[in-house]
Amino acid sequence: VAARRQDVRVELSIIARARDVLFGRRPDLFVVEGAGGFLAPVNETQLIADVAALFGFPVLIVAANKLGTINHTLLTIESVLRRGLTIAGVVLNDVEFSDESVADNAAEVARLSGLTFLGQIPRMSAVGATEGVDLGAVAVACLAAAGPPPPLAPS
User: Fold this and answer.
1) Residue-level pLDDT at 132
2) φ, ψ for residue 4 (rounded to 5)?
3) Distance in angstroms (rounded) separating the CA atoms of residues 42 and 23
4) Does residue 142 have a pLDDT over 80?
């Protein structure tokens, strides 16, 4: 939607070519971030889900920790699995305005989905907001849960 407003068309074929070039460099780590959610549009006919399928990496689901996140996260999990992709785990981001659900969201998502809850990221609105939080440990847990990257499929 943002690209369309700027008169830019995002093409998965261009993303695939860039992926091939970058993979040719044999990186130790390769992270692909989708914006807006798993079913957000990339262009008029394709979704972030199509980008995820193009790469074939395990999907790390990051959700806002607030009322409604259990439903939102379970729907995302269902959508990822229905497309035959694997899930590395779930991370919750704290939001500016908290509610009572935040205390139970992680445990409920893990219980209902059977997935590993990898961590909770505090709201980072000020310098020092992450003191006492080991963001590196969350990242390492995500990578460990994902396992080795799949072999690159030809495009």
Assistant:
1) 56
2) -60, -40
3) 22
4) no
